[in-house]
Specification:
Blueprint lengths: L9 E5 L9 H5 L5 E4 L4 E4 L9 H5 L5 E5 L12 H13 L4 E2 L14 E3 L20 E3 L22 E3 L3 E3 L9 H14 L3 E2 L16 E5 L8 H6 L2 E5 L10 E3 L6 H7 L7 E3 L9 H14 L6 E6 L4 H10 L4 E5 L8 E2 H6 L4 H14 L7 E5 L5 H10 L3 E4 L1 H7 L21 H4 L4 H26 L4 H4 L6 E3 L4 H7 L2 E2 L3
Parallel strand pairs: 9-19, 10-11, 11-12, 12-15, 15-16, 16-18, 18-19, 20-21
Antiparallel strand pairs: 1-4, 2-3, 5-17, 6-20, 7-8, 13-14
Bound molecules: iron/sulfur cluster (SF4) (2 copies).
């Protein structure tokens, strides 16, 4: 036996009493785990190829298959976990950088789960969202610090360009290439129906999706893939991507195997060539450079569109955000440590950056202290999992949240964290036509709309419970939050009191 043999992480368990040999599992598994021998009517499975995407167990008409985590493990060792040993084996065999996808699965604190929300009791009565109006609309962009009058004495109502969302949630950047055409179509349709936005990511905008422009944020990343004048004009806002929570400080790499057909055309690069986005923008080495890029994009779009600058949450994020606010950007998008990705070096994903909760609180406070909070809106992302995460984020100072992993889960993703392989059995993170067609964009859009409508109701209920009837009144209202199980330092950074205080 080869020295690098490892017992598979997952086992495919087939119940022979239920299996009717329909071979659907064999057909549906892009990883070729199941093999049926028609002559002997027997099954073999190559468990080592299984990524636990749950497709076969979901499509099996008789519920004959389940995937279980293998209990064949190395001896317990608090220092050398099974995962660590497996990774060393892999690297000793391949000599390569470990790649993963989706957000960091590490057990570091999720601060949303250590923050509790207030509710009115005797005084300041709660509001019943079924009977009373609740405002969930938000406008993102620069706001004036005070009311001013024009020379003729009338109030100056002119505003810098804004984007309007019917609720404080939008779909975060995911490129066409990292996700499929049908996944993009579902996001675009849902954003349009909901009155929110989806984001092209760095892959350009497919010509079929120009019609969704009013609900599209177009991204300009370091590789400048698919960026041209019509593209900039098509979106409602333009996002400059300086960083991403899942891989701060590194660029992107979409392998040539995924640069096929329309993906290549949309990115404006040859088929089969690797799409490598450099780690930095080669024209941005200072806030002054960033300012030039912000104003070049404003100029190109006649000052009609807000410019977003997206950064990863890193150690000095408050100072970085202060610089971005002064660069002329209208919106800052901050993506936290747990942010998802289609592919990232595992070591970077799991060890670089800081949680979005701490980054958000620090940035909001810094911008307030410097008197420039109204110069920018803040959009945060990086594992926003529920309506309560949104409510807590807004109370910590966010104007809106971006969701990507939650949106993909709504589309059917099982978080197998194998997107980088390009064989997503749910038709999401793949360009293989036979897999892409498994995702019906109309069904996907309906599920996204359902999810957002459900969250909107929950947001209203939580706000009503606090006696608050608008997102605007909740934003930065940290009095509505209490921490539990946190250190003094963590509470200080979050700017919230301990539960019981
Ligand atoms: S990779 Fe997915 S479809 Fe294939 S055996 Fe594993 S769970 Fe089933
Ligand atoms: S998108 Fe597909 S490949 Fe990626 S984690 Fe989800 S199910 Fe797995």
């Amino acid at each position: 036996m080869s020295v690098d043999f490892l017992y598979p992480e997952f086992e495919v368990v087939r119940n022979p009493n239920r299996c009717v040999n329909c071979r659907l599992c064999e057909k549906e598994c892009s990883n070729e785990v199941h093999k049926f021998n028609p002559a002997t009517k027997t099954w073999t499975t190559d468990d080592s190829k299984c990524v636990n995407c749950q497709r076969c167990s979901a499509v099996c008409p008789t519920r004959a298959i389940k995937i279980v985590k293998s209990d064949c493990a190395f001896r317990e060792n608090a220092n050398w976990s099974n995962q660590t040993i497996r990774e060393i084996f892999k690297q000793a065999g391949s000599g390569g950088v470990l790649l993963s996808s989706m957000g960091a699965p590490t057990p570091l604190p999720v601060y949303w789960d250590k923050i509790l929300v207030n509710a009115s009791q005797v005084t300041n009565p709660s509001i019943d969202p079924l009977r009373e109006p609740m405002e969930t609309r938000v406008f993102l962009g620069k706001k004036p610090n005070r009311i001013t009058r024009r020379p003729d004495g009338k109030i100056d109502v002119r505003l810098e360009p804004q984007i309007e969302l019917t609720m404080p949630v939008m779909f975060s950047a995911m490129s066409y290439g990292s996700i499929s055409y049908n996944a993009h179509a579902a996001l675009a349709m849902a954003a349009t129906e909901l009155g929110i936005y989806y984001n092209t990511g760095e892959g350009g905008l497919h010509e079929d999706f120009y019609k969704y422009g009013p609900n599209t944020i177009v991204q300009v990343a370091s590789g400048r893939f698919g960026v041209h004048e019509n593209y900039l004009q098509a979106g409602a806002a333009i996002e400059i991507k300086m960083g991403q929570g899942a891989k701060p400080g590194v660029g992107g790499h979409l392998p040539g195997a995924k640069i096929v057909g329309d993906v290549a055309k949309t990115r404006m690069i040859p088929e089969g060539s690797d799409a490598i986005s450099p780690a930095p923008h080669h024209d941005v080495y200072s806030i002054e450079d960033l300012r030039q890029l912000v104003f070049s994009l404003k100029e190109a779009t006649e000052y009609q569109k807000p410019i977003i600058v997206k950064v990863a949450a890193v150690h000095n994020i408050a100072a970085i955000a202060s610089g971005i606010a002064r660069s002329g950007a209208d919106i800052i998008a901050i993506d936290g440590y747990r942010g998802g990705t289609g592919a990232a070096p595992t070591r970077i994903r799991d060890n670089v950056g800081i949680p979005i909760e701490l980054a958000l609180a620090a940035v909001d406070q810094r911008l307030r202290d410097e008197g420039i909070r109204n110069d920018v809106s803040l959009v945060v992302s990086g594992s926003i999992r529920s309506a309560s995460d949104v409510v807590k984020a807004v109370a910590l100072g966010a104007d809106a949240c971006g969701i990507a992993t939650s949106a993909l889960i709504a589309l059917g993703c099982r978080l197998c964290r194998s997107c980088q392989l390009g064989k997503c059995n749910w038709g999401i993170a793949t360009q293989r036509p036979e897999l892409v067609k498994r995702l019906d964009p109309n069904v996907g859009a309906r599920r996204l709309v359902n999810l957002m409508n459900a969250w909107r109701r929950e947001i209203k209920e939580m706000m009503g419970g606090m006696g608050i009837n608008s997102i605007e009144a909740l934003r930065g209202n940290r009095m509505m939050l209490r921490g539990l199980g946190l250190t003094e330092k963590e509470l200080e950074i979050l700017g919230v009191s301990h539960a019981g205080e």
